[in-house]
Amino acid sequence: AISQLVGRTTVCSNPRPSVLDFNLPSITIPNLNEEVTLTRTLTNVGPLNSVYRVAVEPPLGVQVTVTPETLVFDSTTNRVSFKVRVSTTHKINTGYYFGSLTW
What we know:
Elements: H1 2-6, E1 35-43, E2 51-53, E3 55-57, E4 62-67, E5 70-72, E6 79-88, E7 100-102
Antiparallel strand pairs: 1-6, 2-5, 3-7, 4-6
GO molecular function: serine-type peptidase activity
Protein name: Subtilisin-like protease SBT3.3
Domain Subtilisin-like protease fibronectin type-III: 21-103
């Protein structure tokens, strides 16, 4: 697609990012059949020296682990990344499942 825009062959030097790592406020995992890990980055829009602790309500049959569990923002840190590990033992997904991850 980039080659068509610029009119010449283009090779990207970095590996293609996973669709799971697009920094969106929602998390969608198509065809979860074992385990995936994704990354999100938050920007603090609250007061300086804010501390947030994660609260997770996973869908039934799905395990969710967030690392780190606490985000600390101070005068030198206003952006923090965290990882979300999502796994299931279900081998067949037959629909949509909803949970929540709140800071």
